[in-house]
Specification:
3 domains, 293 residues, mainly alpha, single chain
Length: 293
């Protein structure tokens, strides 16, 4: 469904389109001269003239994206950004008309805008999905114009044409059939009930939060008390190897204590055994050591 602007915006868009369509066309020598002045001398007047002369190209391409339900004015603005990117990268020496080169940049800018704004759910994250998004309607239209419906066989044909999986075609078909809905929208007319009122909350309730905090504090106290029972050297090994965000190597600690890294490993294993035994002496139920699901 196409987006419908308010009357003021429609009039502003129409005025812009009229001005753009009245701009004179450039021949090859003129566009090369303007492009070189902008590229080599950063002449803003040259850029302005070049952009204005090809604004009609932006408008033409924007009209092809109107069926995605987005404002035509926004599409034109995005296309103008692509047009300026083309002007910044255009190389006149390559014997290519600026309109041919700019078309790719304009279309790419508009496609990116459509993918970012068509739905709040991210669409077309890969090149194959982008191709599917922008070509599925055309291929589906060919099928429907021939009097057929979208069968499994036709879905496979679309998948083969666009080199994607059939499951991707099915998923995109579902996406096209649905629209974004606000969770605050009323379920029925003259009703205060909204969809969000009936959605379950998967977060823990306040009681579970308090219990979890208490249990975490208790486990932290047990660990701190168990570590304090260790000899100073083993305490440092445990803290450096197990409790720091970035643990140090056995070799590093070996150099610090003047012992081999194998000896550090043995001390670490012995300290861990002591910790387990110390904590278990403090726990009545071993299940209390594990967080609740």
């Amino acid at each position: 469904m196409a987006y419908i602007d308010d009357p003021i915006t429609q009039r502003a868009n129409l005025d812009y389109i009229k001005v753009a369509m009245r701009q004179p066309l450039l021949d090859r020598s003129d566009e090369v001269s303007l492009a070189e002045r902008w590229r080599n001398d950063k002449d803003p007047k040259a850029l302005h003239e070049l952009i204005n002369s090809y604004a009609r190209l932006v408008i033409s391409i924007a009209s092809r994206f109107r069926n995605y339900g987005l404002p035509i004015g926004d599409l034109i603005q995005e296309g103008n950004v692509g047009l300026m990117q083309a002007a910044a990268r255009f190389e006149p020496d390559r014997e290519v008309r600026f309109s041919t080169y700019a078309t790719w940049w304009i279309r790419a800018a508009m496609q990116d805008y459509v993918l970012r704004n068509w739905s709040i759910v991210r669409t077309g994250t890969t090149a194959a999905q982008k191709s599917l998004f922008f070509n599925m309607r055309r291929l589906r239209g060919q099928i429907e114009n021939s009097g057929e419906s979208l069968t499994d066989e036709n879905r496979k044909w679309i998948a083969d044409q666009l080199k994607v999986a059939v499951s991707d075609v099915t998923e995109m078909e579902i996406r096209f059939a649905g629209t974004d809905q606000s969770l605050n929208a009323p379920l029925r007319d003259a009703s205060d009930d909204a969809l969000q009122d009936f959605m379950p909350d998967g977060a823990p309730n306040p009681e579970d939060v308090v219990i979890g905090l208490r249990d975490t504090q208790t486990r932290s106290r047990w660990l701190a008390e168990a570590i304090s029972d260790l000899p100073p050297r083993e305490q440092r090994i445990i803290r450096q190897r197990r409790l720091e965000d970035e643990s140090v190597t056995l070799e590093f600690l070996g150099k610090e204590f003047g012992i081999s890294k194998e000896r550090v490993r043995q001390l670490e294993q012995r300290a861990m055994s002591k910790l387990r035994a110390s904590i278990l002496r403090r726990v009545e139920n071993r299940g209390d050591l594990l967080p609740a699901d």
